């Protein structure tokens, strides 16, 4: 699929073995008043290169290294991630990429605030 891009200097993701092509994707919990079931949206971020797109990682350890321990995430097959991005109009999927140093990251306090909103 044409969405997948690779950051310079990283091992091409097609050369990394992952179980069933599962990607670990930053997700943002969404609360819908009309629906009691939990929901989420895939996060779109600005990368260190200045480009916008959805990040995905081939390991949970890499996601935590780049975005921090409080980052909500979801594990999805790559094909599902690509379908969701196409549905929402996001044109780039970046595998194992870094974000700009000043990029906002989830923190303990932001997770507590989210928990209070969901209560």
Describe the structure.
The strands form 2 sheets. A 4-stranded mixed β-sheet has the order 1-7-5-4, with no helix packed on it. The protein has a 3-stranded antiparallel β-sheet with strand order 3-2-6. The model is unreliable at 6-18 (pLDDT under 50). It has helices at residues 60-67, 78-88, 108-118, and strands at residues 4-6, 22-32, 35-42, 44-46, 52-56, 73-77, 93-95. The protein is of the alpha/beta class and 119 residues long.
Separation, N- and C-terminal Cα atoms? 39 Å
Number of helices: 3
Question: What is the helix content?
Answer: 25-40%
Would you identify the regions where 5 or more consecutive residues have pLDDT less than 50? Answer: 6-18
Secondary-structure element pattern, one letter each: EEEEEHEHEH
How many beta-strand elements? 7
> Biggest sheet: strands, sense, closure?
4 strands, mixed
Q: Measured on Cα atoms, how large is the radius of gyration?
A: 15 Å
3D shape:
globular
Give me the oligomer status: single chain
The main sheet orders its strands as 1-7-5-4
**Into which percentage range does the β-strand content fall?**
25-35%
Number of domains: 1
Structural class: alpha/beta
Global mean pLDDT: 78
């Amino acid at each position: 699929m044409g969405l997948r891009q690779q950051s310079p200097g990283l091992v091409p993701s097609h050369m990394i073995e992952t179980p069933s092509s599962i990607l670990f994707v930053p997700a943002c919990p969404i609360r819908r008043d009309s629906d009691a079931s939990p929901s989420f949206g895939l996060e779109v971020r600005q990368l260190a290169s200045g480009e916008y797109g959805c990040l995905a990682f081939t390991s949970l350890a890499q996601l935590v290294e780049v975005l921090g321990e409080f980052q909500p995430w979801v594990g999805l097959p790559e094909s599902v991630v690509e379908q969701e991005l196409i549905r929402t109009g996001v044109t780039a999927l970046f595998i194992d990429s870094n974000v700009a140093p000043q990029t906002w990251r989830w923190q303990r306090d932001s997770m507590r605030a989210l928990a209070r909103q969901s209560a």
